User: Fold this.
Amino acid sequence: MRPLQAVLAAIFLSGCATGLTGGHTAQTGHPASRLTVVGINDTHGALLAAKPERWARDFTSDLVGGADWFAGYLAAIRAEAKRNNAAVIVLDAGDMFQGTLISNAFKGKSVVDTYDALGVTAAAVGNHEFDFGIPVLEQRIREAHYPILLANAFYKGTRTRPKWAHPTALVELGGVKVGIIGLATVETPLVTNPLFVQDLEFAPGGPIAAQLADELHAQGATVVLVTAHAGPLSSTPPRPDSQSDQEAQKIAEACRGRIDGLVSGHNHTAVGPPRLTVAGIPIVQAGSRLTQFSVIDLDLDAAGHATAKHVNEGTEPRDGGPQLLAHTKRDGSPATWRGRPVTADATIAELIHGYDQQVAQLRETRLGSTEVALQKGGPDDLLANFAADALRSGAGGGLKAPYAFQNPGGLRIVEIPAGPISFGQIFDLSPFDNEEVIVTLKASDIRDSLESILRAGKGPLKVSGLTYAIDWSRHDPRRKISSEPAGSIVTEVVDLASGRQLCRTESCTQTKCQSACAAGEYPVAVTDFLANGGDGMELLKDKPRAVSKVLVRDILIAFVREHDPITAALLGSVKAGGLQRIRQQGQGTLEHE
Ligand SMILES: [Zn+2]
Assistant:
């Protein structure tokens, strides 16, 4: 399929002089009087429609999402634009590739082909774009007909970007020159396998974008947009030590008066209602997995400058929030975009189903079953218990260990319902090609690890073979978590099987805790992501280690095959008389990915 955009747009990557034609809107010959910016983020390989999340079930009982349906909405948006002398731009804020079999089996190529067919204008590099290694990312960047932009990554200690990191693009649409800047989150090295980005540093995007916006204006851009894999997350209370908290807001502040809109990502948040505007710049984000999209409409004067900004106007189910990628409404009537009926695009449907056919048999393969729903989160976190118990079990040729750690960000779905378990479900739970690593730790290291991830602003580590207590009540939210002394947050660690205490905190001052930890060394099964220092687990990097070379996903698969059916008792469910593995007191932190 030839995207409309390829005809209308001329894309100039920074430094390349491979620009093509300009153009006016086909209908009038006058420059566009409106620019419609469609924003998506955190697609995570979700090219196929899926069951709606709970909140969306009030609006539709049908499937939601799917690239073929997104194409249908884009067709409606483009039809509306044509009538209104408007131009349409589609921006993606990163984390396109990682997360589903239909994407990962092709290392993201299926996503690039689909985005090309959708007519995506430009995308940002998300942290998970590095998951297949930089050579694969480079290849995807070369293949894509849309620019995949990264302005704030440099070789360590320099201000030199890798040659594949194009910071900006200049696009001409409907006679209007639009500059686009792509940014990644500063916490990229924390949230992808650190080995893949070890040569790079990620600078705060705001000042860089401000300078690039000036350059784009100097090159004739009358509108400048930022697509940033950086989020509007704000935890309560705000974390003073988190670089990534409100990162998009900081970018907007730095770009005051220089940019016209910011498409954000990374937190999987649906922004609005209420709408979020910082320094006069609208910031949008539309959940994740291509189930929603955002729209910023810019009214343009004759010179192509934005005179008014409309954000998520007329969107459903909530005006001011992202548009749900619904197929039908609650009453079964067809979905509409601002009154226009929406249907799935047949060409895109054929493209994605072609890819899906290649992985369908594998995806549907039955591995085993579970008697009990494995749900993520809460005091009886059976999905986490399942993953952590499998990791230390030695299943599938993995190494056995008395304990295991599982970072919550590594578990990518929220539920495996009771019933049969397929390969596709385990794949979606654990799409990363992480390998198992056994690190040998002292009891105090175990306690310090459990605290490290919290100091990095992440959710608590899930565990197997252990229980532990988190006590936020000593923590003054105005202080940095990283400055709290060891033992002040994780106050007790206990061996689950024997009830023996591994560490216990007696008392703390602001600078030091009185705590006692057991002697001895303990093997702990982790993913190589954690062993290499991901999620703030720096301290694991130089511990003695044994490497099984077995994929964590293959361990999960073997565990399911060995325990058919999985029961509540097997996973130590609290409801089946098991112990709650993490006990929390006081105000916790938010989990984000
Ligand atoms: Zn991300």
